[in-house]
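Input/output pair, single chain:
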Amino acid sequence: MADLQQTSIEKHLARLVAVGLTSPIALARDIASVDTLTKVQGLLVSELNVLTNAAIHGCSFGVLQEILKTGHLPASIIKEEYHRGYLDVEPIIDVIGNHTDARNALRKGYAHFSEAPNEYHGYAENHALLQAESNALIKIFGLNPTSYQDYQLAIHLVDSTAMDQEITSTAEFLVKRGFTEEQIDVAKDFALNLKGFCIGLKPEVFLHAKYSEVASDGRAPRLKVPKEGIPLELISGIQPMGEAERMLVRQIKML
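Output:
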């Protein structure tokens, strides 16, 4: 917030891009061990093979930062009870029957691969898009990344399904915090250039994390993951979905 009051939004965005997108070499060297960096480099792919995955998770650049830092795919950091400790996924393995805990579903024959895996990849791609855009806005506007309410505010600015009232309410909230309409528009345009990442998860992930099917309110399937997250060994690939993300991947591969 203070940065935006003292300088232009363009300069602030330039710093964000420099730190978050165009300086992966410095980022990786600062936060990743040699072993983790090597493993992540091996997972970076131009396209996921949907037939080798049990599920796909769509995420922002910030998640890739955490993977480099910890060697694990983290769960959601949002404090709201439904999100805390969970990872939204698009399952390519269909769980047959009422088996909400699918850790042993493959072993017992209660699961099989979906007949339309590319459709689920599309769902994950859309989730990655929203995560990338909203998380960029959370950083730019100094919102709380652990607050579901702040996450929704950011989503309203970029989600094509948001109602006019939601968009107007978010803009009014940001204006009250000292941002101009022009700054909000520039930030939104910047965020809309981000597409995020799709992360493929191996079938063994069901042996590591508890799976929940779609809830009655329509919320997405998800995994209840251990506190440390999902280890790199259960990730089959990391696909960049936009040009900014592909640029980042190219530079990380060159390390």
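Confidence is low (pLDDT under 50) at residues 1-7, 18-22, 95-103. The radius of gyration is 19 Å.
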